[in-house]
Every structure is written in C-alpha cells, then in structure tokens.
Write a structure and sequence with these properties.
transcription; 11 helices
C-alpha cells in the first residue's frame, strides 16, 4: 500500500485529489496539510511514501518545504503540483529534490501513475515539461557539452544506455524492456548513476543526459 500526503492551501483541491486517489486499491491518503509548515509536521507524524506538494502556499511555500523534507532522515518522494507549466518555482522545487512535476489538471490515470512511479523511485514528467526543465538548466554552448561528456567518463557502457533511456523519460520497467534486462538490474544501474553523477533524483540524471548530447 502506497501512503500519500496531500499538501495544498485550497481545501477543494485537496478533496479532489483525495477522491481520485481513493479509487485505487493500492493507494491510501494518510493526511493533508494546507501549507509547507504543516506539511513538514504531517510528514514527521505520518511518514508517507509520497507527498503531492503544491508550489504556491502561505507561510512556507512548496519549494522551501520540499528542501526541508529532503533534509529529513527518511524523506518521502515529493511530486510537485502546479497550475503553471512555466512556473519558475517548479524548476527550483525540482532542483531542491522533487522527484516529479504535474499540472493540477493532469488526468486521474496519470496522477495515479505518477504516485506509483514516485513510490518506486521513478519520476513522471510530461515531454513538454521535460524539455522546459532541460532548457532551463542547460545550454547549447559547446564547452558545456564537453564538460558534461567528461562527467560521464566513469560510466560503463550499460550505465550510459540506462542514462539515455532515463533522459527519454522511461521508468525502470520501460528501461528494462527496452534494454532486455531485469528491473532489479536497472535499479542497480540507476543507483550507480546517482553515485557517479552526484545526482539526487531522476530529473538530474535526465539533465546530465541532455547536457552531454546523449538525448535530442
């Protein structure tokens, strides 16, 4: 059972998210919070697997709350929710350690998939959002690409292949199918990628792949 905490300053949004999540037999909502401060307290109390985090809230916004949660001993996966797909705060939240990003009008099936992926250590980003994130954090400068390629020199051939698939937005199961390996092996490669590239989430791995020119 995947436990989820809902964080949004609008009660109606929290109620709507709860209704959607309650349709899944493998997901349970363990609590909610109306701002970042309350979210931190609720996470310490309920220890959820996944937090659905609004970006813009009073007292403590979603960016600061995400950074605070990621500093906890056993942090949950944080999926950022917003109404703006070009919101600068979204990029800052991803840099702070959020594992994914969804618009609030995301279809229910995609919301549930995002929660499941986040709980499994994967991330869900729509292609258009991924491109915006990559553009935000990278550039087309040739020297940057050379530097990015140099950072990948320690990777094995297989790790590089996994990195490319992550850059294309593939979840672990999809990477396993495409590269004809077990999902456990993929997870092992992903762990090595985190260590070798000093990354904390899959978004950062995807950025590394784009910066090095491994993914168009």
């Amino acid at each position: 059972m995947i436990s989820v905490l809902l964080v949004d300053d609008e009660a109606l949004v929290r109620a709507g998210l709860r209704l959607i999540l309650q349709t899944a037999s493998d997901v349970t909502v363990v609590g909610d919070a109306e701002d970042g401060r309350a979210a931190i307290e609720a996470v310490r109390r309920h220890r959820p697997d996944v937090v659905l985090m609004d970006v813009r809230m009073p007292h403590l916004d979603g960016v600061a709350a995400t950074a605070a949660l990621k500093a906890e001993p056993h942090p949950p996966a944080v999926v950022v929710l917003t109404t703006f797909n070009t919101d600068d705060d979204v990029f800052r939240a991803l840099a702070a350690g959020a594992t994914g990003f969804l618009l609030k009008d995301t279809p229910p099936t995609d919301l549930l998939r995002a929660v499941r992926l986040a709980a499994a250590g994967d991330a869900m980003l729509s292609p258009s959002v991924t491109r915006q994130v990559i553009t935000r954090f990278t550039g087309d400068d040739g020297s940057r690409r050379r530097e990015a390629l140099a950072e990948l020199e320690s990777l094995t051939g297989r790790e590089r292949e996994v990195l490319v698939e992550i850059g294309r937005g593939a979840a672990n199961a999809e990477v396993a199918a495409r590269l004809h390996m077990s999902e456990a092996t993929v997870k092992s490669h992903v762990t090595h990628l985190f260590e070798k590239l000093a990354a904390t989430n899959r978004v950062q791995l995807a950025i590394a792949a784009f910066r090095a020119g491994l993914v168009d």
